[in-house]
């Protein structure tokens, strides 16, 4: 079986998404038990859960883009077929790519702004730009998946 960078990225992103979800669930359970039974809350739980949610979302987008399993509105799809349907598909796809490209660029810009400002997480003591940069890299990987999956997307729908 030949080596594929895309398959490696997909496997890596799926493992990262699962680990982020497990970490998020574990922190929530420990925090709720600690607050209700021991009257002690984890101070860093909000920050870790927020970071885990973002990591889980952006690492999971690789698979969502690749398999086109995101939520779509398909009420009018049965009316768009043939050349016109193909045109509509590619126009929607180009709009999707444009907006997601803007999102990726914005997250990278946010990382740079956080670096310039010197933001630090309150309880974790970690520079925010490092975390946002990691999330931006995951968003960039999801963007790659969006671009690579483009040619096959319309062929599967016909």
Automatic annotation (TrEMBL):
UniProt keyword annotations, A-Z: Cell inner membrane, Cell membrane, Membrane, Transmembrane, Transmembrane helix, Transport
Cellular component, GO annotation: plasma membrane
Domain Tripartite ATP-independent periplasmic transporters DctQ component: 24-144
Membrane-topology descriptor: Multi-pass membrane protein
Pfam family, one: DctQ
Transmembrane segments: 12-34, 40-61, 87-109, 129-150
Role played: Part of the tripartite ATP-independent periplasmic (TRAP) transport system.
Self-association state and partner proteins as the record states: The complex comprises the extracytoplasmic solute receptor protein and the two transmembrane proteins.
Compartments where located: Cell inner membrane; Cell membrane
Domain of life the protein comes from: Bacteria
An example molecular function term from Gene Ontology annotations: transmembrane transporter activity
Family: Belongs to the TRAP transporter small permease family.
Name the UniProt record assigns to this protein: TRAP transporter small permease protein
InterPro entries xref list: DctQ
